[in-house]
């Protein structure tokens, strides 16, 4: 496939949405990328993800697909993104199920999300897996090790609290922003550790006399 957007210099980003809980991550990722002028998104929604979308959101699969520039069927192994000659900037699976990660780890690439990720890894391109599962047994951990050794980044969307999130959307935004950092896409969807957190620390410690040094040191060292 030849893309006019790519010819004009846009970055192709493949987004996979698997059937794990946490479809809000994939949706928000698409929303942010859609508002990023130099990005062209290629979306794959797995069969299980379509069911999860119905359970977790008020959106249909068609609503989500409308957010992407290009949509590929999860069973289309002949899609453009299944070939290494189709250049992409990076790929994110959000959320990433254990099944999808394990398929990638063990070379079971019969569905397009795993196939596209496998191709991206062999071409030494960045792949980020927003893994959604807990607790983990040893089989899960072995798969995490294998995909990491192959070059993927396993990124469980662990929430940050130093920015004092007020809503679920705040938590989602922070994880999506950190995920986009890993594929070098500029995004400032949430407060970062730095000026905002230092201001919060200052406000907190000034209201607790005698605790300033201890609070600041503890927060900065992440004990």
From TrEMBL:
It comes from Ottowia thiooxydans. Gene3D superfamilies: Flavin prenyltransferase-like. It holds the Pfam family Flavoprotein. This is Flavin prenyltransferase UbiX. The keyword Flavoprotein applies. The gene is ubiX. FMN binds at residues 19-21, 46, 97-100, 132. It is an enzyme of class 2 (transferase). It catalyses: dimethylallyl phosphate + FMNH2 = prenylated FMNH2 + phosphate. It comes from the Bacteria. Belongs to the UbiX/PAD1 family.
């Amino acid at each position: 496939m030849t893309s006019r957007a790519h010819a004009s210099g846009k970055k192709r980003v493949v987004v996979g949405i698997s059937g794990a809980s946490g479809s809000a991550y994939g949706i928000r990722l698409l929303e942010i990328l859609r508002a990023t002028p130099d990005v062209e998104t290629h979306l794959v929604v797995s069969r299980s993800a379509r069911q999860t979308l119905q359970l977790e959101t008020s959106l249909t699969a068609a609503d989500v697909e409308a957010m992407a520039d290009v949509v590929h069927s999860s069973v289309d192994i002949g899609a453009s993104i299944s070939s290494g000659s189709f250049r992409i900037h990076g790929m994110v699976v959000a959320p990433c199920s254990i099944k999808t990660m394990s398929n990638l780890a063990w070379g079971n690439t019969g569905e397009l999300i795993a196939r596209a990720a496998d191709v991206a890894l062999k071409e030494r391109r960045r792949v980020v897996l927003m893994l959604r599962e807990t607790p983990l047994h040893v089989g899960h951990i072995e798969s995490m090790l294998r995909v990491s050794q192959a070059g993927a980044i396993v990124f469980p969307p662990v929430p940050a609290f130093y920015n004092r999130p007020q809503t679920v959307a705040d938590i989602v935004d922070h994880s999506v922003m950190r995920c986009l950092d890993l594929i070098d896409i500029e995004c400032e969807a949430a407060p970062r550790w730095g000026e905002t957190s230092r201001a919060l620390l200052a406000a907190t410690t000034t209201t607790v006399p005698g605790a300033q040094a201890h609070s600041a040191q503890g927060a900065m060292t992440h004990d």
